[in-house]
Predict the 3D structure of the following.
Amino acid sequence: MPASRGTDLQKQANLNAYIKNSRIPQDVQPLVTSQEIRDRGSIFIANLFPATSPNQVRTMVAHLKDTMHRTKPATHEIVAWRCMVLKPGRTGLGGPDDFELNVGYLDDGEKWAGAKIQKVMESHAIIDAVVIVSRWYGGMLLGPARFSHIETCTTEVCQEFKRSEELRECISDLTNLDAVLAALRTEYTEACGDKTVTSGSSTPKDYPNLDLEKAKRLVKARENAIKSVKLLLAKRRDVPAAAGSGDPT
């Protein structure tokens, strides 16, 4: 038996042993699921789950196989992951140097497929996630086309994951900018009693149904509003100085 095949079988045996002894959460859901690709009876679907450690990777794979696909097992569950983990003996207090990237893949009988998933993840800079491409074999050999389908599914979930990450970052920035703007408006009001710049609630806003493009526009608008209020405050501070600078004679 080739060494690579033996290694793959050992990895699969370890994974199966973990699955049998793990307590899998029943409410786990993928962050992103791709569209189905159908070709000559075969079906390909990718799911991306959060995973910050190899143990979490195993948990997600087990959940997909034993819960989500329990009634319709896939022929192949091809797995690749990229997790930022603590180096042995480190605590994390030393900053980025305490961490290292843990990567790996399982072909699950579809030779070279796991490495292709991992390459797509790397090209999209995906971290702390596992991608599982499930294939249900339809009875006809697809040749190299199967790898194209695997890469297409993986690309779809990786791109959507990056968009959702960017949206979360935008919403976080927007929430912080809202707080800054509210504080500046309060400061201006206290400085001059002019309430014309305090229209709108100071209560923190929620952004449940925001898309990425609108979030970017709102961030830009908040930044411009902050600049405007800062300019008003600067002018207001100059007024007493100017008033007191006249000639006393």
About this structure: The chain has five helices and six strands. The two ends are 104 Å apart (CA to CA).
